[in-house]
Amino acid sequence: xxxxxxxxxxxxxxxxxxxxxxxxxxxxxxxxxxxxxxxxxxxxxxxxxxxxxxxxxxxxxxxxxxxxxxxxxxxxxxxxxxxxxxxxxxxxxxxxxxxxxxx
Amino acid sequence: xxxxxxxxxxxxxxxxxxxxxxxxxxxxxxxxxxxxxxxxxxxxxxxxxxxxxxxxxxxxxxxxxxxxxxxxxxxxxxxxxxxxxxxxxxxxxxxxxxxxxxxxxxxxxxxxxxxxxxxxxxxxxxxxxxxxxxxxxxxxxxxxxxxxxxxxxxxxxxxxxxxxxxxxxxxxxxxxxxxxxxxxxxxxxxxxxxxxxxxxxxxxxxxxxxxxxxxxxxxxxxxxxxxxxxxxxxxxxxxxxxxxxxxxxxxxxxxxxxxxxxxxxxxxxxxxxxxxxxxxxxxxxxxxxxxxxxxxxxxxxxxxxxxxxxxxxxxxxxxxxxxxxxxxxxxxxxxxxxxxxxxxxxxxxxxxxxxxxxxxxxxxxxxxxxxxxxxxxxxxxxxxxxxxxxxxxxxxxxxxxxxxxxxxxxxxxxxxxxxxxxxxxxxxxxxxxxxxxxxxxxxxxxxxxxxxxxxxxxxxxxxxxxxxxxxxxxxxxxxxxxxxxxxxxxxxxxxxxxxxxxxxxxxxxxxxxxxxxxxxxxxxxxxxxxxxxxxxxxxxxxxxxxxxxxxxxxxxxxxxxxxxxxxxxxxxxxxxxxxxxxxxxxxxxxxxxxxxxxxxxxxxxxxxxxxxxxxxxxxxxxxxxxxxxxxxxxxxxxxxxxxxxxxxxxxxxxxxxxxxxxxxxxxxxxxxxxx
Amino acid sequence: xxxxxxxxxxxxxxxxxxxxxxxxxxxxxxxxxxxxxxxxxxxxxxxxxxxxxxxxxxxxxxxxxxxxxxxxxxxxxxxxxxxxxxxxxxxxxxxxxxxxxxxxxxxxxxxxxxxxxxxxxxxxxxxxxxxxxxxxxxxxxxxxxxxxxxxxxxxxxxxxxxxxxxxx
Lengths: 103, 675, 168
Hints:
The complex is a heterotrimer of chains A (103), B (675) and C (168).
Chain A: H1 5-25, H2 29-54, H3 60-90
Chain B: H1 10-24, H2 30-57, E1 64-73, E2 76-84, H3 86-109, H4 116-135, H5 139-157, H6 164-195, H7 211-214, H8 225-240, H9 249-252, H10 258-267, H11 269-279, H12 281-285, H13 294-316, H14 321-341, H15 345-372, H16 385-388, H17 390-404, H18 410-425, H19 427-452, H20 483-498, H21 503-510, H22 521-544, H23 556-561, H24 563-569, H25 574-580, H26 582-629, H27 631-649, H28 654-674
Antiparallel strand pairs in B: 1-2
Helix pairs in contact in B: 1-2, 1-4, 2-3, 2-4, 3-4, 3-10, 3-15, 3-20, 4-5, 5-6, 5-10, 6-8, 8-11, 8-13, 10-15, 11-14, 11-15, 13-14, 13-19, 14-15, 14-18, 14-19, 15-17, 15-18, 15-20, 17-19, 17-20, 18-19, 18-22, 19-22, 25-26, 25-27, 26-27
Chain C: H1 2-21, H2 25-45, H3 49-74, H4 89-110, H5 127-135, H6 139-167
Helix pairs in contact in C: 1-2, 2-3
């Protein structure tokens, strides 16, 4: 029995939910960012799975994946820089304490 | 012409480039900024006029389009495009030309402002967006530019953002027009849903070319699909063109610098609604044996008619020189809508053109007056300016006569065309329109006499009511303005004088098929001339016979109509009515959302306490403040309460936002799959 | 093939779960690296070799190291987290939301018509092909991406340097 698309979709779906859970429940900003990275990876995995099973003869989906990875890397760099800046300001990386934008 | 349309994109592109460069310029490079702005606009103007001449020379009703694909997803593709047809050509020529004149005038008006470059950057951006709107052959592109001009309007109304009134006015303008835009957007979605394209013309496949088919399908509320879409689009036009009941933002928008009022809130942006209705006219008029287009057309006509009369009555009782003009603009836009709704495409669009010239003339004139009198806007503190500012006086008089519809000035022709069209559809609307013409003549005469005749009432020692920049001029005598301010005004006044004679040419130009109504022309024209003259004579009778001695004296009109004057001066209390109705409802909604938020955020236990507290709050609020204090006070406090509650939604924790977002996504999915 | 998938899936899932649930931050990052490795393995399995290599280079080589640096700059090196943040109201809210999203995804996938597709055509994802495509058809997006990365780099430096500049 060979692998089906459904298995990959399931895997990436579960990974996405795990990442979301991390981003939603943890109070440490770095772990929140890690959760977001996991979600990103789940999305890209999904994309690659679709490429493999549906559009194997064209290269465009792979290009999308590469660009998505690059953009995600830029995002994480900026995000971590923000975390460091916030730590300098508040001496903490607890997202529950970052509420300067409270209305 | 087919070749020219390929270059249409240059017309909005050049001001856009200018805006981009100016945004990078330092504050002190004022000359360069103004040069860029005016230079780009000049080239655009030349291009637009070249296109205009080409269309003029082409055969009647010619239309050239240039579509290109923006992006594809799957098999669906989204294309944008440019169009060159009589409507666009005339509008683009007008916008570039009037815009150019206003830019030149603005170099004088803004000469002493430290944020000169920022001002010209915004102006360029506005010009780019407005021209993009005009040359668009695609509803999506039109909508994007539509929102961009709204943004520029927001930025420019609040140009002096440190004034609280300007900051409030910018928000009011943005939000009020946004309300109409919801309808516009729904209309766009409906159109895409039913036709699969947003291109207006596309060699037989365009959305407008399918209007006939759409008219046979059943839409909402017993209307055809075409009528439904038209109605939705019209809501957008009502917001942008300040039609009743969404007119409230336009008078407040006068907080912006006067060239902005002239360009955006008189000549171009507010007319965009009228232009859009004209652009989508096939949808408005599309009817079939099953469904007629009467409802939509009558709706447009009556909204326009009501706005025309309503705004004109308010203009009678204003003292701020710019507010009179603002309400007058509202009223004239109502005229255009009325004309369009009555089936007079030519009348509505021609009035748009003539109005753009004479109203921007009047606004620039008022800007000259404001500069000449050292930032005085209250007409009660002016007077006698005829002696001090002769050039301004003459040009202003020309604008006034054009607006009042006196033969042979431009307004006479276009206004008569509208009234004639309305006459054939509804005698009532026509009567009200003629009444509005009378009021127009009256309040403009009032303004002329208050500002330019009599004795100078400002004088030294008088307290200056407006907190605009005080320049510390030692003397308070009014003075004539520099040439770069009056020259554009003079050029515009030439058009206000002569443009009316182009009526027949314009008719054949934009709508060779539309039959010019002839019957009843004598009656309509006669009565409107009589109404105009009556207004002028009455204005002279009340304000001109004996001059107003002191700024503190009450308006002579108060003695005649008494409390009605206050009623009109307070703009029919529309703002106050909104405060106690719509804002009250939003307030309650806000409390409701606040409750929902508590449920999600603080958990159920916490909420039970909160619910009890809110109930007691609401009871207290309704019982104490609403019933006892009642009326307008409540309106004000409800605004504050609304803000307080919405601000509670923003608890500043990004994770909470994220959770609510996730919850929303999950609920949407589950609803979708349970269905 | 199927066995490889299940092994990789378990590794990936374990990595992800541990990354978001451990208390020691450094351990979290190590688990995250495991997760990244698992995803890279999946890419190899899907014959996206280049992507797998990119995954290892960028995510493990750069992102994970970056996160480690962030931890070192914000905490003591052992990286123990403070008080437990489990079982609070917010924690439950987050967990329930995540579970709801998982249910939504599951419902979607269950009804997806093409879940059973197994076909795999001819491989095109060779490094050579990708390189050629990137520098021909995709050259403009590639350049834009370069600009974006430069901007992000400068932005990150500016944000992180803020304090130093203020002190000066």
